[in-house]
Amino acid sequence: MINITVLNKVGEEKVLEVPEDMGLNLMEILKANEYNVLATCGGMAMCGTCHVQVLEGMDNMASHSDAELDMLDTLPDATPTSRLACQLRVDEHMSGAVFKLMAEEDMEIA
Ligand code: FES
């Protein structure tokens, strides 16, 4: 297991313990932890609803694919540290990373 830190839209921070050896992507992890990430394209880099900003750990992650960059280009609030969570494979390189959710749908915070 590795730890990653997630900040929701209102800045509440949570440390998630996630399996690094199951071939999951970050979008799947976020959904499994009940973040309201729509992921309407199902992880195909085509909807942008899994947009996150990487606050720490960007250097350790694989670089963007062309499809990811194309999608990020269409998002008005994308920054140089933006990623699509569905394109980020969760592995040991992600340990200690910090993400801010950019596209979480509004929902009541429990
Ligand atoms: S789930 Fe659609 S772009 Fe990531």
Kindly state the number of beta strands.
Answer: 5
**Gross morphology:** globular
Report the portion of residues in β strands: 15-25%
For the record, the CATH class is Alpha Beta
How much helicity do the residues have? 10-25%
Bound molecules: FE2/S2 (inorganic) cluster
The whole-number mean of residue pLDDT values reads 93
Q: By helix and strand content, what is the structural category?
A: alpha+beta
Low-confidence stretches: none
Spatial ordering of strands, largest sheet: 2-1-5-3-4
CATH topology: Ubiquitin-like (UB roll)
Distance between the termini: 25 Å
Give the name of the CATH superfamily: Beta-grasp domain
Supply the number of helical segments. 2
Q: How many structural units, i.e. domains? A: 1
Radius of gyration: 13 Å
User: What kind of sheet is the major sheet?
Assistant: 5 strands, mixed
